[in-house]
Amino acid sequence: EKLETAARSNLAADEAAVLLDHLDFLSREQSLMNRVAEADAPKDVDAWKRLARRQSGALKEVEAIKALVAESADHFPDPIFADLNATVADLETKAASVKLALKQDVPGPDLLKTAKLLQAAIGAAASSVRPLARNMADDASLARAELEEDIGNTHDALSNLRTVLSAQKKARDDQNGKQ
C-alpha cells in the first residue's frame, strides 16, 4: 500500500510539474508576443498578422494543456482535479474570444485586447498550479520517506547491491584469467 501511495504521489507531482512548465512557458510567450505586437503595430502594418499567427499557436498550446489535465484525471485527488478543470474552463473561455478575434478578415487592435485577456488567464492558471505542484512534490517526498521507513534507505541498498555485483564480477574475471 505504501509503495502504491508513493508511486501515485510521485506521478501526481510529476504531472503537476509538467503542467506548471507548460503554463509558465505559454505565459512568457504570450507576454512577449503581445508586447512585440503592441510595440511594432504603429510602424509595421504586418504586426497584427504576426500576432494572429502566434495566437493560433498559443491556442494549440491551450489545447495541449487541456489534454494534459484530462489525461491526468486518475493521478489527482478529485477536489484538485475539479480545480484544474475549472482552470481549464477559464482558459477555454478566453481562448474562444481569441478564436473569434482571429476570424476577422484583417486582424487589428481587438486581437491584442483578447490576447491580453488570454495572457492574464494563463498567468492566473500558472499561479494557481504553482502551489499545487509544490504541495504535490511535498506529498511525494513524504510518501517516499514513509516507504523508506518500512523498507530501509533505497540508496544504501542499491549501493550495497552494486558492491556485491562488482565483487562477483571481479571474482569471475579473476577466475577466468587463471584458467
Explain what you see.
It is a single chain. This protein has 179 residues and is mostly helical. Helices cover 88% and strands 0% of the residues. The chain has 5 helices and no strands. It is elongated, with a radius of gyration of 25 Å. 26% of the residues are buried.
Secondary-structure topology with pairs:
Elements: H1 2-40, H2 47-71, H3 78-102, H4 109-151, H5 154-178
SSE order, one letter for each helix or strand: HHHHH
What is the helix tally? 5
Shape: elongated
Q: What portion of residues belong to β-strands?
A: under 5%
Mean pLDDT: 91
Q: Helix- and strand-based class? A: mainly alpha
Low-confidence stretches: none
User: Could you describe the largest sheet, including whether it forms a barrel?
Assistant: none
The helix fraction, in percent, is over 70%
Rg (CA only): 25 Å
Tally of extended strands?
0
Query: Separation of termini?
Result: 50 Å
List keywords for this structure.
179 residues, mainly alpha
Summarize the structure.
Helix content is 88%, strand content 0%.
